[in-house]
Amino acid sequence: MSHLPTVKLLIGGEFVESRTTEWREVVNPATQEVLARVPMATADEVAAAIAAGKAAFTRWKKTPIGTRARIFLKLQQLIRDNMKELAALLTAEQGKTLADAEGDIFRGLEVVEHAANIGTLQLGEYAENVAGGVDTYTVMQPLGVCAGITPFNFPAMIPLWMFPMAIATGNTFVLKPSEQDPLVTMRLVELALQAGVPAGVLNVVHGGPDVVNALCDHPDIKAISFVGSTRVGTHVYNRASLAGKRVQCMMGAKNHAVVLPDANKEQALNQLTGAAFGAAGQRCMALSVAILVGEAQQWLPELVAKAQSLRVGAGIDNPDLGPVISCAARERIHGLIERGVADGASLALDGRDVSVAGYPHGNFVGPTIFSDVKPGMSIYEQEIFGPVLCLMAADTLDEAIELINANPNGNGTAIFTQSGAAARCFQEDIDVGQVGVNVPIPVPVPLFSFTGSRASKLGDLGPYGKQVVLFYTQTKTVTSRWFDDDASSGKVQTTISLK
């Protein structure tokens, strides 16, 4: 074991070896090769990281906005320069294809570019002479030490959703990456320091529930951003909110696509297949349910054929989809497929027996399609987080909308149609936070914010974009009046009026 590289903690600008006695292994999901050991940080180490952030905040919050912006201009260039290395690292530990890994990094890079624009994002408001000689203005000030807890499925994009915007707005940050695949995250952190993030402004700890709870409880953490499962996110939201913190939690999903019979068939089937099975279905924005309306129900054979044509393999070979993250994830997905059959859904395509030449130990699951899926079935009620597509039938668009709105989750949805009227009706009546019209995975660009809703989100403000600037800042309103030296108000005023 000792010959394996160990993942370091970042505390006060130094990469340090943890003193913990508890370690986990980072495993390549295509080969089961152990890539590194990751520490479950001790309580003292978590406290030291938070203390480093608190100490650095006194200086960082006073740093000119242009200085902060230039760091992220530098970081986006460093990420571009190191794209191939970052993608290879991500693929080795997470499993997604090299092309998808570059996409993961690029969508995070867009947020870094947005952070470089902080000068125009963190502007307050000003009104002159709101009462006699009285002016009012607001300033958007940083909160202090903020924390981020990120999931295994996007180890580049989601950390880059968090720490650049938090730091650009003047906060310091403690990041807890997924312990399953922290290597690419740590490389991005190294690049951030190289770009000029000062010591203590960005800190990293690794761990499981104990570290998460320490971040939720510590009085010096002012805000927590979380992306991950509904179970953990609900725990984080409740525990951190009770401790008086701001919290934003992006959680589980069950995203539906509505396919109308007037859709461009080839485009719709291609988009749906890619969105259901890309990244082996391990996206909180994956389209895991398709509601085929009317005559579109006859498209099942063509959808199955498209799914069968996808190549499963190790991410390094750039197939269409790679392995799922772990042996446990593979077993869980297999178990849900078995439940789907037992519950009476029709298994139109079974991906359980897929084998990949040269990778006998990979956690591979092939594209799997169920038809005749009904509410109440396990495969419909649970987020499978694997390459499994559930097909449902509806006679009308209204019936499809009713089905989607009855599901508790609200992360994303899409409609495939060539009818502007149908699309307009759908976007207005659907109770889901992110809507795609002929766009299968409608994650907004960073000019906007990620706006999942209902059971997919706890907290009012979403990641990145304008909303996260509000999340990471406190609005302070200043009301001021300056008197001429010889001016006299004449009498004591005891009323609330500003006249």
Automatic annotation (TrEMBL):
Q: Name one Pfam family in it.
A: Aldedh
UniProt organism field: Vogesella aquatica
What is the name of the protein in this document? Answer: methylmalonate-semialdehyde dehydrogenase (CoA acylating)
**CDD domains, from UniProt?**
ALDH_F6_MMSDH
Signal peptide range in chain numbering: none
Family indicated by similarity: Belongs to the aldehyde dehydrogenase family.
Domain named Aldehyde dehydrogenase is located at 15-478
The source's superkingdom equals: Bacteria
InterPro entries in the record, alphabetically?
Answer: Ald_DH/histidinol_DH, Ald_DH_C, Ald_DH_CS_CYS, Ald_DH_N, Aldehyde_DH_dom, MeMal-semiAld_DH
What does the UniProt keyword field contain?
NAD, Oxidoreductase
Q: Does the keyword Oxidoreductase apply?
A: yes
Name the EC number(s): 1.2.1.27
- Entry keyword annotation includes Thylakoid: no
